[in-house]
Amino acid sequence: MPRSARIFSNTLLYTALALGALVMIIPFLYMLSTAFKGQVYVLEVPPSFLPEQPTVQNFIDAWQSNNFSRYFGNSLLVAVATTALSTLVSAMFAYAFARFNFIGKNLLFYAVLLTLMLPNLMLIIPEFILVKNLGLRNNLIGLVIVYLAFSIPLNTFLLRGFFEGLPRELEEAVLIDGGSYWTIFSRIVLPLSTPALATVAIFTFLFAWDEFTWALTAIDDPASRTLPVAIATFQGQHLTQWGLVFAASLIAIAPVILVFITLQRYFIKGLTQGAVRG
Amino acid sequence: MRSLSIAAPTSPPKRRHLFLTPYLFILPAALLFIVFMLYPLVDAFRISLYDWKIVPGANSPFVGLDNYTRAFQDDVFWIALRNTVLYTVVTVPAQMILAMLVALALDAVPRGRVFFRVLYYLPVITSWVVVSLLFKYMFDSTEAGIINYFFMRIVPVLHEPVPWLREAGPALIAIMALGVWKGIGWSMVIFLAALQGIPHELHEAAMIDGANGWQRFWNVTIPLMRPTIVFVLVLLIIGGFNVFISVYLMTGGNPVHRTETMLTYMYNESFNFLEFGYGAALSYILAAIIFVISFIQLKVLRNPVEV
């Protein structure tokens, strides 16, 4: 293509991309500006993007009122516990699928694949009854256990694919030297799999941090709420205090966006791993 | 593996150890998976056969398949199914086509790929709760709602504000707009990775053969991306049938059940009306639909020949 034609087509492409990107981020900008508005300006006509008298009052109110810092802590605790435990047990599970033979291996693996396809939400009724009978309602442990179960299938599936691609020679050398499979797993397989583990950990954290429906169902006690439920309830309670709702929302999504921007490549890897290989 | 077969006969204790090893590795995850995933899966079916009473001590009569036949005679069930299918049929192609266009554009430009990828991906990583509330605010029924304002003043196609979330049709449009907006980035990232994996030689060869851009797209790009496209399609359709949080928070299935989807109806019946047996039957019907559709797609669309 001649140079002028290329410059023309690039300009066209960038313009289209920029317009699309604008549609993607305008809602965020609107949320940001609303969070900095005083209550009187929230539903003004015409709607404005630049608050006339910007104020951080909404953020202060959101953080201090309604136990919000507690919800933040609950979410953090649940998400960190789920991520650490799920990554470890899924990695062990996946390693067994990749390297060992055991009774019921195929059956178990098909069961994992089946649950990958089914909506988690279809389990919410029996899960509710089970957790209730175990006395784990209104308990963050009840959240962590169910999040673990929900996240194990996908994590196992992704890690099994990665482990199968690792060379076996190193592992066999350890065995000959008298090392156990646990040594191989913890000293060789896990360190070699850092990128895959990071990907799995990030996605698990995101899932546990954002999960809404199970937390809404399992937790009645306001003190044990997590952020997504707290924000939704917040909106119900303060029907038109959108500034407050969005200040709370921004506090909740800020860590996610930060993690995403710094660890982007792991996100992309996680998405494209299973997909592109078909 | 040779070392194992040599070592094994000489050291029987180690052999027993080796026999146990796999089970120790699977123990924690398998236990969680079986107790909190497989057991509930079976239990949901059992519950669906009863007029289940959650109240302690109350007797739950066995009703056979009554909960299933009830669904087929329930008008709201059909509304919920129709809305769910509509949501999927509209949002899945819209997401895929827009995502493909963005991916093609990003593949073609010399710089700025990472920057644009972040912007398009922001909605994907933002929680459903937050974006649902955000869209609820943007689709406010008065002129102060930014969407109404935009279509009345900036691009004046409306003469008066649309009561977006108060009427079924407009509410479904708002919900679908959210679904497409939030989903484009996900498909786009996957498409872009696949596009960048296509060897340049293939395009060059096609160019030498005189193929224009359009022909290269249909005869080189699309066939090579087929597994990726099928993967995205299958997952998006599953996701479409699972639409829940946006509907639950934006309309709650209202006005009078007219924006209900399969999962919101299941959830409302179960946890607002305590119809657990009926709710469980609804989830089994949904799971069966998803399972059949995914199975057919994988059978029909998956390319049997490795490219």
Describe the 3D structure.
The complex is a heterodimer of chains A (278) and B (307). Chain A has 278 residues and is mostly helical. Chain A is 76% helix and 0% strand. Chain A is built from 13 helices and no strands. Chain A has helices at residues 3-35, 57-64, 68-99, 105-117, 124-133, 140-164, 169-176, 181-192, 194-210, 213-218, 227-237, 242-262, 264-277. In chain A, helix 7 (169-176) runs antiparallel to helix 8 (181-192), helix 9 crosses helix 13 and helix 11 (227-237) runs antiparallel to helix 12. The radius of gyration of chain A is 24 Å and the shape is globular. Chain A starts with a helix and ends with a helix. Chain B is 75% helix and 0% strand. Chain B is mainly alpha-helical and 307 residues long. Chain B folds into two domains: 2-48, no CATH class; 74-301, MetI-like fold, CATH 1.10.3720. Chains A and B meet through helix 1, helix 3, helix 4, helix 5 and helix 6 of A and helix 1, helix 2, helix 4, helix 5 and helix 6 of B.
